[in-house]
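Summary for the steering committee. The consortium agreed at its last meeting that each partner would contribute one worked example illustrating the joint modelling workflow. Our contribution is presented below. We chose a case with several input lines so that the handling of multiple components could be demonstrated. No manual editing was applied between input and output; the record is shown as generated.
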Amino acid sequence: MHEMSLAEGILQIVEDAARSQGFKRVKEVRLEIGALSGVEADALTFCLDVVLKGGVADGARVELEKLPGRGFCLDCGETVIIEALYDACPKCGGYQVQTTGGTEMRVKDLLVE
Amino acid sequence: MCTVCGCGQGETKIEGHDHGQDQPHDHPHEHTHAHEHTHADGTTHSHPHAHEHSHEHTGHDHGHDALHAAGAAHEHIHYHEHAGGHLHYGLGPAHTHAPGMSQERMVQIEQDILGKNNRYAAANRQWFTEHGVFAVNLLSSPGSGKTTLLVKTIEALKERVNLAVVEGDQQTSHDADRIRATGAPAIQINTGKGCHLDAHMVGHALERLALPDDSLLMIENVGNLVCPATFDLGEAHKVVVLSVTEGEDKPLKYPDMFHAADLMLLNKVDLLPHLSFDVHKCVEYARRVNPKIEVMHVSATSGEGLERWLAWLTDGLDVAIAARQRNVDLLKRRIAELEALLAAKK
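What follows is the complete predicted structure of the assembly.
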C-alpha cells in the first residue's frame, strides 16, 4: 500500500502550491501516471480521498491520465508500446525490451479558485 | 504520516530518535550532519543538512520544477476563440464575468510525486559518494533468508572492511539484534504501518550510525516485493533476494521489484534437490522483466556461491573508495595550486 505514501506526496505538493500561489480551494487534481509505474489507480484514488480530507483539496475531483508504457526493443531496434514490464516486444516477440517511458508519476496541474 | 520526518502516525521509530510521549510530533529536527561539499571546480563549502534540503546541487532532473519552486507560477490565461472569431478573455470554466469575483484557474504543477523522496535520496547518494560508502539496498519477500544471508556476509567480511547495517521492519528490533550479535553496528528502523523504507528515514539512520569513510552499508528493506521498488534510498544498487522455496514465477508476479534491481540472488540453492523449482525458468522470467539483471546462485546455509557475492560487494566498495580518494587527491592538488598562487602574491 505505498499508494498511501504517494497520496501524501501529492497532498504536500498541493499544499506547497497553495502556499506559494495563494489559492484557497482546489476543485480538481490532475495526475499523470505511467502504465509501468506500479501504481494501482483505484488504490491511489481511494487513498487520496482519505488524505485530502479537511485540506484545501477536500472533495476535489481526481483525474488520472494514464501514460503509455514504452520500451526500446534491442532486437528490432525500435521503440514499442508495452502494457507491462514483462511484455514481449509486439513486433518480434522477444523479451529484450528496455523500458524508456511509462514509469512517470506526476501532479500535472490543479484547477483552483 | 508525520510529514516532517516520515513517521507513520508517529509510529516510525528509528533507534535513538524518539518522539516525546505527549508531543509526538514536536521535533525541532536539529540534526546537522554538517556536509562538506566539494564542487567540480574544487571549491568546498560546508553547511548543515537542513531539513527541507533547499540545497539541491543536483540541479538536473527538475528543470521545470525549479522554476515553480521559485514561486514563478505560470498561470494559463485561457482565452477561447469562438467560431465568430471573437476572443473571450478572462474566462474560467465557470464563466464568471464580474470583476473581482474569484475565478477558477488552472495552476500548472508538473511535479514528480516522489520528488521529495528523490531529493532526500540524492542527498544520501551525495553523502555516500563523498564518504566512499558503497550502499546496497536488499529487497525480498519475508522469509527469503535475507537476514541470514546478511549475517553470513558480515561474518565473512568484517575483518576486511568497515561495514554497517540499516534494518527496516514494521516492528521489533529482532533483526538489528541478530546483526549486532555479529559485532557489526546496526540501526533498526521500525516503519510502523509503513510498507517500505524511504530516503528520509535512511538519512536519519545515517546520522545515528556515524559511519566511517570507506564503508560498506547494507540496507535491509522491509520484507515486501512491491512497495520498496518505488523508493530510491540513494543506494548504489538494489539487490533482490529470491529463495528457491518460493515460486519461480515471482519475477513475473512482482515485476516492478525485479525491474528495479541490478542483481538477483537466488538463495537457498542447497535445497534445490528437494524441490521442483525450475532455476532456468526463474532466470528467464527475471530477464523478461529486466534484460540487464545479473543473477547469482547462493546458499547462506551451505556457503555455496557466497564467494562471488562477496567479491561483488568488495569490488563495489573498492570503486567507491577509489572515487573518494580521487576526489581527495583533486582537492589536495587544488590546495597546492592555491598555496602556490598565494606564495607568489606575498
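The radius of gyration of chain B is 25 Å. Chain B has nine helices and 13 strands.
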